């Protein structure tokens, strides 16, 4: 696979991304911003930047990318067709990566192999 960096000549580095689900249902005493659907993405992004994060992982990363963070997306798929559709829908959105949960764990060997092939083929295509 050719794309193993961010496309620049910069040296490899560790980036800190936060899965925004960690900011849901926080206890009342928490000083962290709540990242609900109605939250102000700019306020959440400012707090995350101040805490040292460079990006987020969530279902709608564009909201936070527009506020200056980098973005990753996540999803789940149970069939090769669902894998291909997610990869296609994630492509071209300026995301750094996508995390894909594949299957329920009850797939046959043949179904698992077909899903694995779809992941590799989609990664190469998109």
Top keywords for this entry?
single chain, 126 residues, alpha/beta, four-stranded parallel sheet, 33% helix
Proportion of residues in extended strands: 15-25%
Number of helices: 4
Spatial extent as radius of gyration? 17 Å
- What's the mean pLDDT score? 92
Q: How would you sum up the major sheet?
A: 4 strands, parallel
Q: Which segments are poorly predicted (pLDDT under 50) over 5 or more consecutive residues?
A: none
Shape: globular
> What percentage of residues falls in helices of 4 or more residues?
25-40%
- The span between the termini is 12 Å
Order of helical and strand elements: EHEHEHEH
Name the structural class. alpha/beta
Per DSSP E runs of 2 or more residues, the count of β-strands stands at 4
Strand order of the largest sheet: 1-2-3-4
Detail the topology: elements first, then pairings.
Elements: E1 17-19, H1 41-50, E2 55-58, H2 62-65, E3 70-77, H3 80-90, E4 97-102, H4 109-125
Parallel strand pairs: 1-2, 2-3, 3-4
Helix pairs in contact: 3-4
Short recap of the structure:
The protein is of the alpha/beta class and 126 residues long. The chain has helices at residues 41-50, 62-65, 80-90, 109-125, and strands at 17-19, 55-58, 70-77, 97-102.
Care to describe what's here?
The model has no long low-confidence stretch (mean pLDDT 92). The termini are close together. The radius of gyration is 17 Å and the shape is globular. It is of the alpha/beta class. The protein has a four-stranded parallel beta sheet with strand order 1-2-3-4. Helix 2 links the parallel strand 2 and strand 3.
